[in-house]
Amino acid sequence: MKMRFKTDADFAAFKDELRSRLASRQNRDLEKTGLKHSAVMVLLMNKEGAAHVLLTRRTDTVSTHKGQVAFPGGGMDDHDDDYRAIAYRETYEEVGIPPEKIEYLGRFDDYVSITGFHVTCFIGAIGYPYECMPNRDEIESHFEAPLEMFVEQRFERTEIYNFGGKDYRVFYYYHASYEIWGLTARILTDFGEKICRD
Q1: Which of 45, 88, 173, 178 would be a feasible disulfide site paired with 128, CB 3.0-4.6 Å?
Q2: pLDDT tens-digit profile of 50-90?
Q3: Residue 134: helix, strand or coil by DSSP?
Q4: Peptide bond into 134 cis (omega under 30)
Q5: Does 64 fall in a domain?
Q6: In the chain, where does DSSP find H-type helix?
Q7: Which domain holds residue 105?
Q8: What is the domain-level CATH number for residue 82?
Q9: Average of per-residue pLDDT across 120-140
Q10: Alpha-carbon distance 120 to 138, whole Å?
Q11: Number of domains in the chain
Q12: Kindly report the CA angle at 69 between 26 and 63, in degrees rounded to 5?
């Protein structure tokens, strides 16, 4: 799948292809009891002629995933209508990007985090440059990482982690001064392999 663009039309074609591939596959839906529902928004953009993904580094004062790289997202509130509403609300609360600035492309797979969350992933696109107003209580910084890095699995190393009696491969990627690992790296690696590869 072409992830480098000479024109805006190339990026539009990329988004159309993603939308088609996401719509045509069966998502992995998980039905786990006793987990808190949450959702994340994987935001893609055309930065300097290549597909990039928006990521954040969480502060050291948040309740979970302190100092880790993550997508905009979080847990369900009582007033959220559905999982997508969580992703939109949390994206606005964390980085100040409102729903009307997000072009919705589709839903990706569900995951279970080791911290007890049932995570639903949504894929969207935003323009570049974009206005970002991080909530400094939650977000230390934000950056854009090239999607191609995850599609080509250019990770630094992997480790095996046992969760629930099953071994999982944990990927560690590095971009600029950021370490991308855990569930964030797993989602991006899976997205690259299942959706973006030809």
Answers
A1: 45
A2: 999 999 999 988 766 678 999 999 988 888 899 999 999 99
A3: coil
A4: no
A5: yes
A6: 8-24, 83-95, 147-151, 182-191
A7: 8-147
A8: 3.90.79.10
A9: 96
A10: 20
A11: 1
A12: 100
pTM for this entry: 0.94
Residue 86 included in any domain: yes
**What is d(CA 167, CA 155) in angstroms, rounded to the nearest whole number?**
19
Can you tell me the distance from the alpha carbon of 23 to that of 18, in angstroms, rounded to the nearest whole number?
8
H or E element at residue 163:
strand 157-163
Beta-carbon contacts of 32 under 8 Å, excluding residues fewer than 6 positions away, are 112, 118
Q: What average pLDDT is seen over the chain?
A: 93
Residue 27 in any domain: the answer is yes
**Quick count: other Cβ atoms within 10 Å of Cβ 138?**
19
Q: Whose CA is closest to 111, among 182, 22, 174?
A: 182
Strands 73-75 and 36-47: antiparallel
Cα–Cα distance, 22 to 84 (Å, whole number): 15
Q: Measure the CA angle with vertex 60, ends 118 and 187; round to 5°.
A: 35
Give CA separation, 192 vs 53, 134, 159, in Å: 12, 27, 19
Q: In sequence order, which ranges of 47-191 are alpha helices (DSSP H)? A: 83-95, 147-151, 182-191
Q: Tell me how long the chain is.
A: 198
